[in-house]
Amino acid sequence: MRCNSLRKKVFMTNDYEYIYGERAVAFLDVLGFQSKLLEFEREAVNFKDSHIDEQSEDNGNSFYYSRMANDFIETFNSAISKLNPDKFSYYLFSDNICITANNINSSKEKSLLELLLVISELYFEFVQKGYFLRGGIDYGLFIDKSSIALGTPLAEAYKIETSQSVFPRIVLSNNFVKQFKVYSIDNDGPYYSILIDSLIKKSCEVKYLNVFNHIFKVENKEEFFESYYTNIKENLLKNAESERIYSKYQWLAKEFNAFIDTYTETLAFLDENFEATDEFITSIQQLKISYGN
């Protein structure tokens, strides 16, 4: 009987340039941004026209500049700069933002939680500039290297953003939520449990990020609520004659009001880093938005 000796080939990862890894992938865009792009362009053209004389004296070099476009990019960079590049990658193309995260869950690092917290922070940073985000997050195998972003999680996150994120919300896929659930098993105390439990909301079959939970990460909490109140109210008034757009901000106003109720009744008193006075609670309750037609 003849025996065939089989050689076991040793595979080295550095022999293969593009390797799939398990990643969470967020695809976000800015609600109503097309009109903003036109504003940026008009501002850039006006800048060049108004400075053409002084620019021509500088060796004939002239350029287009938009302060609003710069503010938009700096807002993005401000929040994203806090991410550890060893765990996260990110891309900005026009009004589209893609953020990917390795799945690290240890006693010291919880990258999927960090991803949600950074997106909540990014959401708030844009709110202060008058922008509102919507998007989707999925989880799965993904190639994420330098300028390459390829895999079904990005396609699924984009699909979620276009089909389910009708309102300014960040919808989470079932794949992502399943991975995220492990964080509630090994937590770091009651405050941590509260943060986890209140971070994901559900409407029928749709699960989405509770962006208002960023309140636990800001020092000036009254200013946080006032920023949301002012910008949601402004967009409701601005779009009062457009039912399609108005309904999006009406939904957000309802979510905001519901969070004020939850926060002032329970969450504010569970925050170990903040003392909620009666005066503070009353001032926040007065920021609920009237959004009826």
Give a description of the structure.
With 293 residues, the protein is of the alpha+beta class. The protein is built from 10 helices and 8 strands. Strands 1, 2, 3, 4, 5, 6, 7 and 8 form an 8-stranded mixed sheet that branches. The chain is globular and about 60 Å long. The termini are far apart.
Output the keywords.
293 residues, globular, eight-stranded mixed beta sheet, alpha+beta
Order of helices and strands: EHHHEEHEEHEHHEEHHH
The number of helical runs is: 10
Distance between the termini: 88 Å
Radius of gyration: 23 Å
| Fraction of residues in β-strands | 15-25%
- Principal-axis shape equals globular
Number of strands: 8
Describe what is shown at a glance:
By secondary structure, the protein is an alpha+beta fold. The chain is built from ten helices and eight strands.
